[in-house]
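[audit] Reproducing an earlier prediction to check determinism. Same input, same settings, fresh worker. If the tokens differ from the archived copy the diff job will pick it up downstream; this log only records the rerun itself.
[audit] input (125 residues):
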Amino acid sequence: QVQLVESGGGLVQAGGSLRLSCAASGRTFSRSFMGWFRQAPGKEREFVAVRGWSGGNTYYTDSVKGRFTISRDNAKNTVYLQMNSLKFEDTAVYYCAAGTGRSAPITEVGGMDYWGKGTLVTVSS
């Protein structure tokens, strides 16, 4: 059974940092992208960042460029999201995802095949 388990969420002041982790089990995502989406209260789930196996294909949504960094440890089947200079508007539940983009682009919810249950990030202003 494939599982993606996020950790690292919490409460942080604006300007602070958090590091999210997502550990995958049940299979190796060697041919898949792994990434992060988020969903703020009352809003749809949105793309944050995604990274390919080798790191050559890494994408970010514009609002986090220069502040967030996605990385992967393929040996540990784990993906990370380092979030710096956090803003109030970054408050959301952050979901780990893995997929190949067969049904939709990997920057869209439909492009991912597996999802974690999410971890809450709250940024106080």
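[audit] rerun output stored. Observation attached for the diff report: The chain is about 0% helix and 50% strand.
[audit] end
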